[in-house]
Amino acid sequence: MKDPLKIPQLLLRCALGITFLTPVSDRLGILGPKGTGNVEWGNWQNFINYTSTLMPLFDRPVVNILGGIATVTELIIAILLIIGYRTRNASAAASLITLTFIVFMVLSVGIQKPINYGVFTATTAGFLLARVPNYEWSIDRLLAKKSG
Questions:
Q1: In its keyword annotation, does this UniProt entry include Signal (predicted)?
Q2: Residues 135, 5: contact at Cβ < 8 Å?
Q3: At a CB cut-off of 8 Å and minimum separation 6, what does 124 contact?
């Protein structure tokens, strides 16, 4: 039977991976300085300043650590999704981390920011991708074929 999700799951994997890769690149200054193009932060300091507004209960050093953990996690998720390795787990992790972002954003700055940033869409996309039965054109698929 032909798999109707063959191409959509690939596109969703790549789109979600890029959705995580872009803000990581922004906060590391790879996309340029703040205010150019669609650059939100432009550097780590601006990112931590913004993150501090989302986590007012935490001291600055804690926010810096949590921001670092989030950044590394987002980078790993992005890579795993794009190459299609442990896709189900990466998709679930994508949903959980973005759901966490939604909670912090809604409680601190209101519902409009997560809507503007597409965080609800990313959360839902991750949950949907985690339910796809087969990941064509992925390392997962190659490993499944190899193991029989």
A1: no
A2: no
A3: 95
